[in-house]
Design goal:
The protein has 145 residues and is mainly alpha-helical. Helix content is 64%, strand content 6%. It is elongated, with a radius of gyration of 23 Å. It starts with a helix and ends in a 9-residue tail after the last helix.
């Protein structure tokens, strides 16, 4: 397997810093286009290598935090009932309780209850926060679930 083939396998897991003894411009361009954080050729200055590793660790921490946050939000979404998901999808479009009730053929009071449960389960204090949470999990107003 070449270094670029390994990169394609690992790219989703962690930031990649290439260190090679046989680097050329074409390979370095390919590596960077494929998502490498840095491309160093041997012999490399220790401070440059440590700086590249530091950038990679910082990027890895940021990406880990994003994945953790998304997983937490998805876990909250998994606790919603089918009806709560339907209500949330319509609420994300900006529809009022009365409109959601009409769309779903339910009483407005029932929609208020579902909406309150959505807010509670999603741990959102406002509709704006609910929209942000849903967006971080890849759920948008147009989604049915």
């Amino acid at each position: 397997m070449t270094g670029l083939e390994v990169q394609h396998k690992l790219n989703q897991l962690l930031p990649i810093v290439f260190l090679t003894g046989h680097g050329d411009i074409g390979t370095s361009v390919d590596a960077m286009k494929a998502g490498a954080l840095d491309f160093l050729t041997k012999p490399v200055c220790e401070s440059l290598m440590l700086a590249a590793i530091d950038r990679a660790l910082q990027r890895a921490c940021i990406e880990w935090a994003k994945r953790s946050q998304r997983a937490e939000i998805e876990e909250r979404l998994n606790h919603l009932t089918r009806r709560e998901r339907e209500v949330m999808a319509l609420v994300l479009t900006g529809r009022l309780n009365k409109q959601v009730a009409s769309d779903l053929g339910a009483a407005e009071k029932t929609i208020k209850i579902h909406r309150a449960r959505v807010m509670e389960k999603m741990k959102a204090r406002s509709i704006v926060e609910l929209v942000r949470l849903a967006g971080r999990a890849g759920v948008h107003a147009a989604d049915d679930d």
